[in-house]
Amino acid sequence: MDENVILSVSGLSKHYKYYKTLFDIKKNVIKALDGVSFEVFKNEIFAVVGETGCGKSTLSKLILGLTEKTSGEIYFKGEPLDYGNKKKDFRKKIQILFQDPYSSLNPKKKIYKIISYPAVKNGVIKNKKKDRIDFAAEQLENVGLPESTAFSYPHMLSGGQRQRVGIARCLSVRPELLILDEPVSALDVSISAQILNLLTDLRNKNGMSYIFITHDLKLVRHLADRVCVMYGGKIMEIAETDVFFNAPAHPYSKTLMESMESISFTRPNL
Ligand SMILES: Nc1ncnc2c1ncn2[C@@H]1O[C@H](COP(=O)(O)OP(=O)(O)O)[C@@H](O)[C@H]1O
Ligand SMILES: [Mg+2]
């Protein structure tokens, strides 16, 4: 086993069966993920790009154990990823930051409760109000928010502040791998730049790996160490970011890049 590999995925597939119409007798099969293999290194930002429906969210659900794989293997630091194994604490080690900071935080809970919840659940701190507040204040500081945020409700915060709270919650259990599923696509450009800088700083400070799911190739160019291009449940290409942008190897990668250029060309200058 390579010591530098944090996540290794081999031949991973997820096939969904569904009825096309009410009157179908036979189920149809959709290959949401079809024999995918790759490795993510320690401390790496590994970008996964591809159009809607290519299987990005299915991939993250499988890594998080939120759905059953059809076939294939996932290894975390050389061990089979099995969330049933309490001793290994995989749940703590792999976290996800969701796209939408508006819907991913419980609107009825104060921020200190939201942030300290995973730590309480995982036995990192005791379920006592003072402990939870102290703990949350520390996490808030890490993401550049004032301590007083601890007593706010999510609706009292801006989109950028909410996403910082989301990050604080993810990082509170000190994960080694963070899945970022379109982490800034719901935010303004200037706010998303701040959030991305924060994520890069935190990666450099704490030593984590990111799987960065996005459709924005500009962000990939700016942030990622390597790029993985997906299409129709399959991987088309994996390359170092510089190599990828200078000379994309796969015809689909070229199409993706061209479409990005034409979009930015037609976008009004706001
Ligand atoms: N629960 C499900 N049942 C049936 N089909 C699904 C389900 N989840 C996803 N799919 C299909 O699998 C494919 C991949 O979806 P998804 O992983 O969400 O793609 P992405 O995140 O890249 O947009 C799509 O065609 C989608 O319609
Ligand atoms: Mg998705």
Which consecutive residue ranges, at least 5 long each, have pLDDT under 50? Answer: 264-270
Under CATH, the homologous superfamily reads P-loop containing nucleotide triphosphate hydrolases
Q: At CATH's second level, what is the architecture?
A: 3-Layer(aba) Sandwich
Integer average pLDDT: 90
Give the DSSP E fraction (strand runs of 2 or more residues).
25-35%
Q: In order across it, which strands form the biggest sheet?
A: 6-7-8-3-9-10
Summarize the structure.
The chain has helices at 56-63, 90-93, 111-121, 129-142, 159-171, 189-206, 217-223, 241-246, 251-266; strands at residues 5-18, 28-41, 45-49, 71-76, 79-80, 94-97, 177-181, 209-214, 226-231, 234-240. It has 270 residues and is α/β, with parallel strands linked by helices. It starts with a strand and ends with a helix.
Structural features, described:
With 270 residues, the chain is of the alpha/beta class. The chain has helices at 56-63, 90-93, 111-121, 129-142, 159-171, 189-206, 217-223, 241-246, 251-266; strands at residues 5-18, 28-41, 45-49, 71-76, 79-80, 94-97, 177-181, 209-214, 226-231, 234-240. The chain has a single domain (5-266), classed as P-loop containing nucleotide triphosphate hydrolases (Rossmann fold), CATH 3.40.50. The longest helix has 18 residues, at 189-206. It binds adenosine-5'-diphosphate (ADP) and magnesium ion (MG). Adenosine-5'-diphosphate (ADP) binds next to strand 1, strand 2 and helix 1.
